[in-house]
């Protein structure tokens, strides 16, 4: 738990342009996991791994209440997903610490809230999960719930989902 | 762990106690996959039974199932017009979010006008509509935002008042409509856009038969829907539907509506609309309030 809080505190304190010391951008050649996370097979770091280009301007970052808001959404969304009766079974074996960190980075990156994304691409991170369409929709609903609890306007929620919706073919594999 | 696709239809929980329909799991804690679709993405039953926006069929497939299941829906609609009352009830089956089979019975009660037209008070035109719709490609919500869901459909319509509609000038008591719809929810703007092109001979969608003294040819008609999503549950929109004008004695106009649809829960959608159906059976300005309830599983 301490590691978690420390990691998130570090991320929130991170300046808009990531530095070498930031935990979400491991230096080249490092294992692509930060302390406290399970090891992952090496992969190529690229902003393209995030699956979409970020929004322009600061409107969306504001609508999501900046990095702090995004952080709360990811925290709540992760909790809902891991505890969910429908899709929890897909999540429970997977490293929650890493999931929260990389998902935060991805959301923050896409919302142009000042992060870079250091995780894997969507196809390779979901290829073995057996996600069905109903699971995808369930996940969208949980995300909508987390965004609503953060009081993100519905129009902004949909605008954000417009970045994620085209990623479906990489996620829903059967 | 994952149950096969028939789970939705064959699962007793889906058809038994409706309390269990509201929950994502059965009492035994087993995951049910009969609620796979996002709210409202099964559309609103149209007056002809196909899923869509009330007037125009969309490239959606009825019921709450995804490509991994078979969903069902049923609707009742009541439109209280200035001089008439329109009612329809129907059901649809959605197979693997690919193929939709639908049926609707339409009743168009002429009320007092029936007497004035010499048909008798409350004379009711009735029609059966059997439909099939196939989604060819695309998705309403996901994938390439520039590629809409595209579906083609066919509707066989059989008017049950053959001798009367022929006396009015219709050439036939039954007819076949074919249509193609393209539908996309443009998430970035929370806007759903649908366009439908239909080939039809129907007079007042078939309630007054098919073809007439003015024309007995197929006409290409346009139907459009525009809807704005205010929340997960609430959408407001409007529709337009053009129609042929085949009968010399009773000219007809394009139809319009403005609607509010609310997903009460996953299984129930309520719609209220203002409809303007123009001139019907010689009486102009048939405007009124439409109420529709749709249950979907
Ligand atoms: C467009 C929708 C989605 C996006 C943007 C997304 C995003 C992500 C991201 C950024 C990661 C971390 C990648 C990494 O560790 O390097 C991840 C992993 C994961 N996602 Fe998704 N995801 C989506 C849909 C789904 C769905 C529908 C499910 C299941 C219902 C799911 C389940 C998982 C799981 C279990 C992991 C952990 C994989 C692992 O640890 O190996 N995701 N996702």
Key terms:
heterodimer; A: 174 residues; mainly alpha; 9 helices; 52% helix; 0% strand; globular; disordered N terminus; B: 297 residues; mainly beta; Porin; twelve-stranded antiparallel beta barrel; two-stranded antiparallel sheet; 5 helices; 8% helix; binds protoporphyrin IX containing FE
CATH third-level topology of the domain at 65-169 in chain A: Globin-like
Specify the overall morphology of chain A.
globular
Distance between the termini of chain A: 35 Å
**What's the helix-strand series of chain B?**
HHHEEEEEHEEHEEEEEEE
Q: How much strand content do the residues of chain A show? A: under 5%
Oligomeric status: heterodimer
- Briefly note the structural class of the backbone of chain B: mainly beta
Full CATH superfamily name of chain B? monomeric porin ompg
* Share of helical residues of chain B: under 10%
CATH superfamily of the domain at 65-169 in chain A: Globins
Give the DSSP E fraction of chain B (strand runs of 2 or more residues): over 45%
Could you state the order of secondary-structure elements of chain A as H and E? HHHHHHHHH
Structural class of chain A: mainly alpha
Named CATH topology of chain B:
Porin
Task: Walk me through the structure.
Chain A has 174 residues and is mostly helical. Chain A is 52% helix and 0% strand. In chain A, α3 crosses α5. The model of chain A is unreliable at 1-23 (pLDDT under 50). Chain B has a single domain, classed as Beta Barrel (Porin), CATH 2.40.160.40. Chain B has five helices and 14 strands. In chain B, a hairpin with a 3-residue loop joins β4 and β5. Mean pLDDT of chain B is 89; it is low at 1-32. Chain A binds chain B through residues 85-86, 89, 130, 132-134, 136-138, 140-141, 144, 154-155, 158-159, 161-162, 165-166, 168-169, and chain B through 1-2, 24-25, 29, 31, 33, 35-38, 66-69, 97, 139, 141-145, 186-190, 229-232. Protoporphyrin IX containing FE binds next to α4, α5, α6 and α7 of chain A.
């Amino acid at each position: 738990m301490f590691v978690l809080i420390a990691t998130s505190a570090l991320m929130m304190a991170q300046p808009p342009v990531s530095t070498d010391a930031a935990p979400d951008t491991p230096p080249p050649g490092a294992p692509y996991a930060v302390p406290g996370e399970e090891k992952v097979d090496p992969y190529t770091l690229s902003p393209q791994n995030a699956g979409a280009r970020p929004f322009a301007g600061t409107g969306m970052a504001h609508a999501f209440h900046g990095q702090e808001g995004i952080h709360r959404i990811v925290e709540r969304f992760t909790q809902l997903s891991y505890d969910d009766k429908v899709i929890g079974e897909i999540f429970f074996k997977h490293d929650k610490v890493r999931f929260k960190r990389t998902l935060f980075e991805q959301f923050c990156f896409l919302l142009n809230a000042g992060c870079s994304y250091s995780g894997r691409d969507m196809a390779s991170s979901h290829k073995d999960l057996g996600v069905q369409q109903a699971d995808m929709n369930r996940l969208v609903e949980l995300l909508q719930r987390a965004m609503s609890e953060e009081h993100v306007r519905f129009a902004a929620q949909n605008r954000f989902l417009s970045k994620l919706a085209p990623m479906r073919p990489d996620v829903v594999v059967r | 762990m994952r149950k096969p696709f028939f789970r939705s239809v064959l699962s007793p929980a889906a058809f038994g106690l409706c309390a269990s329909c509201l929950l994502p799991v059965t009492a035994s804690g087993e995951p049910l996959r009969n609620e796979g679709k996002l709210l409202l993405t099964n559309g609103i039953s149209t007056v002809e039974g196909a899923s869509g926006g009330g007037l125009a069929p969309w490239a959606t497939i009825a019921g709450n199932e995804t490509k991994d299941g078979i969903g069902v829906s049923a609707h009742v609609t009541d439109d209280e017009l200035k001089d008439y009352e329109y009612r329809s009830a129907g059901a649809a089956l959605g197979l693997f979010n690919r193929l939709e089979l639908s049926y609707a019975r339409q009743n168009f009660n002429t009320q007092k006008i029936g007497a004035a037209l010499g048909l008798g008070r409350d004379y009711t035109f009735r029609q059966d509509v059997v439909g099939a719709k196939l989604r060819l490609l695309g998705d309403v919500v996901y994938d390439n935002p520039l590629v809409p869901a595209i579906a083609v459909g066919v509707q066989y319509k059989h008017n049950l008042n053959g001798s009367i509609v022929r006396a009015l000038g219709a050439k036939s008591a039954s007819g076949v409509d074919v249509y193609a719809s393209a539908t996309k929810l443009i998430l970035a703007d929370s806007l759903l856009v649908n366009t439908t092109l239909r080939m039809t001979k129907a007079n007042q969608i078939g309630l007054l038969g098919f073809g007439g003294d003015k024309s007995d040819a197929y006409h290409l008609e346009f139907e459009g829907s525009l809807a704005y999503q205010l929340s997960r549950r609430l959408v407001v929109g409007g529709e337009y539907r053009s129609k042929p004008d085949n009968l010399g004695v009773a000219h007809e106009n394009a139809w319009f509506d403005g609607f509010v649809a609310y997903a009460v829960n996953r299984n129930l959608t309520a719609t209220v609309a203002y409809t303007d159906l123009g001139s019907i059976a010689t009486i102009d300005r048939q405007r009124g309030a439409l109420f529709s309830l749709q249950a979907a599983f």
